[in-house]
Design brief:
By secondary structure, the protein is of the alpha/beta class. The chain is 47% helix and 11% strand. Helix 9 runs parallel beside helix 11. The protein binds phosphoenolpyruvate (PEP) and magnesium ion (MG).
Amino acid sequence: EEERLINKDLDSLRSLPCVTLDGHHLPLWVNTGLLADVKRAQQRGAEGVGLYRSEVAFMGSSRFPSESEQVLMYREQLQAFHPLPVTMRTLDIGGDKPLSYFPIKESNPYLGWRGIRITLDHPEIFLVQVRAMIKASAGLNNLHILLPMISGVHELDDAQHLIHRAWGELINEGVDVQMPKIGVMIEVPSAVYQAKELARMADFLSVGSNDLTQYLLAVDRNNARVAALYDYLHPAVLMALKEVVCAAHAEGKPVSICGEMAGDPVAAVLLLAMGFDSLSMNSTHLPKVKWLLRKMTLEHAQELLEEVSAMDNPQLIHSTLNLALGNLGLSKVLNP
Ligand code: PEP
Ligand code: MG
């Protein structure tokens, strides 16, 4: 209810861009899954979709959707935001996202068969999905494809090969469509260390901070008992994020972030300072983040980042940021 009231108050920001007081534009994108998310995102003034979780529709179905069914689903998303970019993630099942009609039994599912690992082992599933995405983008050409759970360049190489194959097939079938941009999710620690190589091969990077935090801190993101240890403002997570931004920019590639962290106004200040090219979040959080960043300067955000980068204690980082933003009179949108 509190959120609803704040957001109502922030409705006037809808058509305004996310620009800091010193003129730095940071596009705010949304995470979507269902068609219902699209309307809400548009009402909130999103500048694109940074993460379409394609598995949501698969999880709501009783069997794998056919290629033509998938084309319809993807076309709805692509059309709704056209000409803005729509970043569609390929099927990210396994871990905490089961499919009833594709059961997986493992003793350690988070370290098991997840995301790209499954679809590379089942290229027939991957090819149908990628064909459907590319086909759906004909005439719109605003599709970006995002690959989840990449842990090394070999997986990106294999996935790129299959995407090129799907695109080539469609061209041969007479579909007039551009090759989409291909991005890599950075959500496994090994991908942080290979971010430069991955950025060189891909068109863009997008940090999945939910999983990256989970894997860096070895804390199950859904286990209440260790929830206090799950902290995306942990110094190690912040250090990893800075490295990923540097790696992407060293290769001249844009880098986004699409985990929950991007929708936390306090964290968003640090992400702005780190140089992320866009933030993608649940549309509920978008007005708060926009409101706060429009009241900040990039320079001040950079000073805050420098200050907290010298700290080794996550609690101290939280309190320093809350105090600094509170002193600026910006506490209205800060999370408790
Ligand atoms: C993430 O891991 O940060 C992410 C955006 O993906 P998901 O939450 O769907 O795993
Ligand atoms: Mg993830």
